[in-house]
């Protein structure tokens, strides 16, 4: 039985990793509602709030902390 070291194993691209793409898709899905809200605000008012993306997230109440 031959044991190979990791240094001699063929290099794999990160783009072939399902874990990588799962993380990318999760990140996109998590920010989509915030982006949609900003787009809707822009369509209704014609302006964007520079703090809108950071301040659209609900802040926890004291009972949740």
Low-confidence stretches: none
Question: What global shape is seen?
Answer: elongated
* Helix/strand order: HH
Cα gyration radius (Å) = 21 Å
What portion of residues is helical? 40-55%
Derived structural class: mainly alpha
- Number of DSSP strand runs: 0
Largest sheet: none
On the 0-100 scale, what is the average pLDDT?
77
Distance between the termini: 56 Å
**In percent, how much strand structure appears in the residues?**
under 5%
Q: Tell me the number of helical segments per DSSP (H or I, 4 or more residues long).
A: 2
Could you explain how this protein is built, in words?
The protein is an all-alpha fold. The protein has helices at residues 18-45, 52-55. It is elongated and about 65 Å long. The mean pLDDT is 77.
């Amino acid at each position: 039985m031959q044991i190979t070291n990791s240094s001699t194993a063929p290099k794999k691209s990160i783009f072939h990793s399902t874990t990588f793409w799962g993380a990318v898709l999760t990140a996109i899905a998590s920010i989509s509602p915030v982006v949609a809200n900003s787009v809707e605000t822009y369509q209704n008012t014609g302006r964007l709030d520079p703090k809108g993306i950071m301040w659209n997230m609900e802040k926890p109440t004291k009972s949740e902390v």
